[in-house]
């Protein structure tokens, strides 16, 4: 090889290296630019608007206004009730969920998969549907009306536990399923009783998963909007419902902004703590998955608790369905036929069937928006980093797109309300505003469903495809797509179900002539008349059935659930 040839090869290699070093940052920027812009306009701007409204109400920095709001006695009661109810509901959900997690993930018995799917249904139900179901169960005419719990704090706690116990079952059950059974078997061989094995071996191993599940459940309970709004009425109010009432009823936007800031700070801190406490599996430790076994005498407590929990979960849903089929004490489909009307005394501007069509159309838009952004984000943060700086950028982007998880839907909707109402971003009349808000609510869920799958693909497969002449797009189609298509469908199902049941942000943004189904249900139960209430029951059954079917399809795809957060 001549000196000129060596020099030419060295020059080409140097040019290729320089181009590669330039193209990777450009590709990273190209993938991230659209999601970053969307997040900036529809998340950072609304949050900044709330901060401005809270601290710069009259054009000058005045933190005293926020402190004045936070010093009100009613705000103290609202914050205390939020913390107290979330704490108690979390404790009860963990106590009820642990035996069911053991029975459904470590034992084998006929109908186990059916029971597991049934206990996961409550989590996918829209919060307003859960509220209506418990009102039907605990109301004066309900099966448990004699307990006089309707409109009490106990009813709210029951709704919160009903809604979140599935998170404990899924998160702790998955950890329990992956525990190495050999330490427990060794302890039993040395004479330890089943209770001692659980206390000294199993429980310490499960503690990270239990703490992680409890953190997530507390977050969901503290930001449960529809459950508290429908069951608490005017007597009980959480931070979320207080923001809603201050905005819609009292028009005190500054006080609502102050509470939104408080909630934003508290939820972000809670997410950081939950992230610290979340169980992270050690890749160096080999795990031996235990096969489910047939129940023994010591498992009677777990099976009995699971059966009791199944009855408690089925009771509100069954009462809701039965109530929707009763008109004036007789069995009838009249409530369902009435869904094509506007209710009595013109309770609605449009029929419920129109609201269902609006919800489905909105869910489709929110799904493709969240999937598009989620895919871009997932590809951005999972590509192999060639330098420490690139790795830090990808981690920063990953954390950035999780920020919507730290802001409740009510806070996000309120931020939209006060910031996107002036040119050049006057979107209040745009039909895309509601799906955009719902897409942001679903975005962290989509990202967290797809990222682990893409991150698990060996980068050498992409390199092999590239060495065989495949371009970047061809490599994605041949390497990534066969692995990610099923989780992608599941992520779409998650986003669709979240959009169908989303009530917090939509309650601020939905237009009177184009309401979604959750908004219509809440309006119906707020108007007097048996026909309006019967229509609310029927609409709740329709909404619950739709979301349940979607999530059961997702469950068949066998991907991580929302509880994995």
UniProtKB/TrEMBL annotation:
Domain of life: Bacteria
Transmembrane stretches, start-end: 21-45, 78-102, 114-134, 154-173, 209-234, 254-279, 300-327, 360-379, 400-420, 432-455, 488-510, 530-554
Record's bilayer topology term: Multi-pass membrane protein
Annotated compartments: Cell inner membrane; Cell membrane
Main location: membrane
InterPro entries given in the database record: MetI-like (IPR000515), MetI-like_sf (IPR035906)
CDD domains: TM_PBP2 (cd06261)
Protein name as annotated: Iron ABC transporter permease
């Amino acid at each position: 090889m001549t000196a000129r040839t060596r020099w030419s090869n060295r020059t080409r290699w140097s040019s290729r290296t320089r181009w590669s070093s330039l193209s990777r940052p450009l590709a990273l920027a190209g993938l991230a630019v659209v999601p970053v812009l969307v997040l900036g306009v529809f998340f950072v701007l609304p949050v900044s608007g709330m901060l401005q409204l809270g601290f710069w109400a009259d054009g000058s920095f005045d933190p005293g206004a926020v402190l004045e709001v936070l010093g009100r006695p009613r705000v103290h009661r609202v914050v205390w009730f939020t913390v107290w109810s979330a704490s108690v509901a979390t404790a009860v959900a963990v106590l009820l969920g642990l035996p069911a997690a053991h029975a459904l993930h470590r034992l084998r018995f006929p109908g186990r998969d059916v029971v597991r799917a049934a206990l996961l249904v409550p989590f996918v139900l829209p919060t307003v549907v859960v509220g209506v179901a418990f009102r039907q169960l605990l109301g004066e005419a309900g099966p448990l009306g004699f307990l006089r719990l309707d409109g009490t704090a106990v009813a709210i706690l029951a709704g919160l536990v009903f809604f979140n116990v599935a998170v404990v079952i899924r998160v702790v059950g998955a950890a329990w399923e992956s525990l190495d059974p050999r330490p427990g078997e060794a302890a039993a061989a040395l004479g330890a009783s089943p209770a001692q094995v659980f206390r000294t071996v199993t429980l310490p191993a499960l503690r990270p998963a239990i703490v992680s599940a409890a953190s997530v459940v507390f977050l969901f309970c503290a930001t449960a909007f529809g459950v508290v709004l429908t069951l608490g009425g005017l007597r009980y109010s959480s931070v979320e419902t207080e923001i809603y009432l201050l905005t819609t009823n009292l028009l005190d936007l500054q006080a609502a902004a102050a509470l939104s800031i408080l909630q934003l700070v508290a939820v972000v801190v809670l997410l950081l703590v939950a992230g610290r406490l979340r169980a992270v599996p050690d890749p160096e430790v080999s795990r031996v998955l235990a096969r489910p076994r047939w129940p023994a005498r010591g498992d009677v407590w777990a099976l009995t608790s699971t059966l009791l929990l199944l009855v408690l979960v089925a009771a509100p849903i069954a009462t809701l369905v039965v109530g929707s089929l009763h008109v004036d004490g007789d069995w009838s489909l009249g409530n369902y036929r009435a869904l094509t009307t506007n209710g009595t005394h013109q309770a609605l501007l449009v029929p419920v069937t129109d609201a269902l069509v609006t919800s489905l159309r909105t869910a489709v838009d929110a799904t493709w928006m969240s999937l598009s952004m989620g895919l871009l984000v997932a590809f951005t943060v999972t590509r192999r980093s060639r330098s420490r700086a690139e790795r830090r950028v990808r981690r920063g982007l990953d954390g950035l797109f999780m920020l919507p998880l730290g802001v409740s839907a009510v806070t996000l909707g309120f931020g939209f309300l006060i910031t996107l109402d002036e040119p050049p971003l006057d979107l209040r009349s745009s039909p895309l505003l509601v799906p955009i808000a719902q897409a942001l609510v679903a975005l962290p869920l989509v990202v967290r469903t797809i990222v682990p799958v893409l991150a698990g693909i060996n980068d050498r497969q992409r390199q092999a495809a590239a060495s065989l002449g495949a371009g970047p797009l061809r490599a994605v189609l041949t390497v990534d797509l066969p692995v990610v298509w099923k989780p992608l469908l599941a992520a779409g199902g998650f986003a669709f179900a979240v959009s169908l049941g989303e009530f917090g942000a939509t309650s601020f943004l939905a237009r009177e002539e184009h309401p979604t189904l959750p908004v219509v249900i809440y309006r119906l139960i707020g108007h007097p008349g048996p026909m309006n209430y019967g229509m609310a029951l029927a609409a709740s059954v329709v909404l619950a059935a739709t979301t349940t079917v979607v999530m059961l399809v997702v469950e068949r795809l066998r991907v991580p659930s929302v509880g994995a957060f």
